[in-house]
């Protein structure tokens, strides 16, 4: 019996899903992997004077290593990671065996 594979990719701006999961049964198995990126900064630097101005930072770059406080601060603009727009890329791979005829 030959297994077939199907790959589904999804991109969303915000997602509260877990980073990965795997399901297996006797005739099929599937797994999903999510990659998270933080892109342009959306902090309004002129909010205190009633205006709107962003700094133009295009992508979050951590100022420190993972696990430190600086890992949540952007090296380019100095803002917290939460001010950067979140993009989640999810890839689902399903393998299945067609039923016997």
Automatic annotation (TrEMBL):
Keyword Metal-binding: yes
Ranges of compositional bias, category Low complexity: 13-31
Residue span(s) of domain ZF-HD dimerization-type: 38-87
Start and end residues of each stretch annotated as Disordered: 1-32
Cross-referenced PROSITE patterns: ZF_HD_DIMER
Residues spanning the membrane: none
Origin superkingdom: Eukaryota
Annotated Basic residues bias: 1-12
Keyword set includes Metal-binding: yes
One Pfam family linked to the record: ZF-HD_dimer
Alphabetic keyword roster: Metal-binding, Zinc, Zinc-finger
Protein name listed in UniProt: Mini zinc finger protein 1
Organism field: Camelina sativa (False flax)
